[in-house]
Amino acid sequence: MIFRFKRTLKLGVKSLWMHRLRSTLTMLGIIFGVSSVVSMLAIGEGASQDAQEKISQLGSRNIIIKTVPPPEDKSSIGQQQTLKEYGLTYDDAERFRGAIPNVRVLVPNRRISDQALYRNSRVSTEVIGTVPWYREILSLSLKYGRFITTTDTHYKQAVCVIDDKVRNELFLFDDPLGQNIKVGGDYYSVVGVVSAQKDIAASELQGGKNNPEKERGANTGKIYIPLTTARTRFGETSIQMGAGGATLERVELQEIIVQSRTIDQVLSTRRSVQSILSRFHKKNDYEIIVPLELMQRAKDVQRIFTIVLGSIAAISLLVGGIGIMNIMMATVSERTREIGIRRALGARQRDIVMQFLSETLILTLCGGILGMAVGSLIPILVTYFGQMRTVITPGSLVLAFGISAAVGLAFGIYPAYRAAHMDPIESLRHE
User: Fold this and answer.
1) CA 420 to CA 348: how far, in whole Å?
2) Pairing, β 83-85 against β 245-250
3) Which of 172, 81, 84, 85 is nearest to 123 (CA)?
4) Which of 7, 12, 19, 123 could be disulfide-bonded to 358 (CB atoms 3.0-4.6 Å)?
5) 209 to 55, 215, 222, 285: CA distances (angstroms)
6) Does residue 225 contact residue 188 with C-beta atoms inside 8 Å?
7) What is the rounded distance in angstroms from the CA atom of residue 202 to the CA atom of residue 215?
8) How many CB atoms lie within 10 A of CB 296?
9) What is the value of pTM for the model shown?
10) What average pLDDT score do residues 53-70 get?
11) Are 100 and 241 in contact (CB under 8 A)?
């Protein structure tokens, strides 16, 4: 049995080697198909992991409540408003802390867009007035120095922590620690440097719908100062320029981050937060973001994305399989006399089937191996030149190779069956 299999395999390789150019051209369809499957799955997996990491930076146990401008009141259209008051308040933070037992920690934040100056350098930044445990809640990586402390908060110290973006703009060649930067008319001493938040985390922490600061705040550097300092030095009233002129707006807090004790309590905590806000905020001037829900949504989107990409790549494999079947059918016609001679010398139908099926499988498996090599190279080039994350998983390689083998088997059966069932006498007469 083993000897017969080896002989059949040897005959298949010899036959393909005699028609090297045709065999190579036939394999191209499988090579392109398998490489498409591997590379597309790698791109999809990379995008998925990248999104998961960015969303997870927001914290799987966190609930982020953000201030958003309320919808325009139809009764007030055309009336001049001297002061618009809306958004989250310090009282809201106290209500969450006192009324929701599942709350582990709470982070109230103020966010102000302003410019930072150091010597002759100037950069647009977002100033975040926050509390010492902000870094832990959002997993900010401290590069050197320190973060805001309870002492800074208690004494309203003029200290700040900057991120990489601000450091690179203002202190490209200088050590920022101990230097004073000017923000909003006041000077702050730099006490630490943290890694920049990833874009999705930054953008999600801005207001959502109807928030004019969202796009700008998502891409600017961050400066962190004590919340008490921000409240004292920046106040709570800002001037917003619009088509109808200037409008005064008063917002106490731009966001409150609530962290539940466990992941299982996130959704119940969210419902409690929603219940409290609905009682005290009739203007619909807030938005609730649950990173856990975002992560689940990202997984669902990725699943659909992978199916679509895999289907597109499978079509190219299908086309390659059809090409192989056409070539094998032509090969059967060319070798009709050979088939007749082999049958006359005692070869069984099973032997003929095995010979042609082995040739098809050799073509598809060799094409699959080369396709995996090319498909593994494409994501590397995409990552290098396109600055896009790609991840090649063992599962995608096994899947691609398995599909190529299945294609070879499926599209090789009919030509092999047709060759085996030729009439030996008619085959010998074939010229």
Assistant:
1) 8
2) parallel
3) 172
4) 12
5) 18, 11, 22, 10
6) yes
7) 10
8) 12
9) 0.68
10) 84
11) no
Closest CA to 28 of 404, 379, 381: 404
Residue 116's pLDDT band, with cuts at 50, 70 and 90, is very high
φ/ψ (deg, to 5) at 189? -90, 130
- Strands 159-163 and 221-226 turn out to be antiparallel
Look at the block and give the residue holding tokens 């009324």: 99
Asked whether the predicted pLDDT for residue 367 surpasses 80, the reply is yes
Q: How far apart are CA 366 and CA 190, in angstroms?
A: 61
Reading the block at residue 323, the tokens are 């090409």
pLDDT single digits (tens) 135-150 = 998 888 999 999 999 9
| Weakest-pLDDT range from 170-179, 242-251, 355-364 | 242-251
Enter the tokens of residue 195.
């890694």
**∠27-354-426 over CA atoms, to 5°?**
100
Tokens read off for 26: 């036939």
- Residue 186: strand pairing partners: 183
Give the position of tokens 């930044």: 125
The tokens for 303 are 């699943």
Q: Alpha helices, DSSP H only, in 121-210?
A: 134-137, 150-154, 164-170, 199-205
Flag whether pLDDT at 243 surpasses 60.
no
Domain boundaries, the chain: 2-54+298-429, 69-284
The more confident residue out of 20 and 281 is 281
**Smallest Cα–Cα separation from 68: which of 360, 299, 277, 357?**
277
- Residue 355's closest CA among 41, 100, 34, 15? 15
Here the tokens at position 1 are 């049995």
| Cβ atoms of 76 and 86 closer than 8 Å | no
Q: Residue 274 has which token pair?
A: 């929603």
Q: Report whether 396 contacts 42 (CB < 8 A).
A: yes
| Pair 218, 206: CB distance under 8 Å | yes
Identity of residue 72: E
- What span, in angstroms and rounded, lies between the C-alpha atoms of 263 and 275? 20
Q: Which residues contact 104 (CB under 8 A, 6 or more apart)?
A: 61, 259, 260, 261
Tell how far CA 41 is from the center of its chain. 13
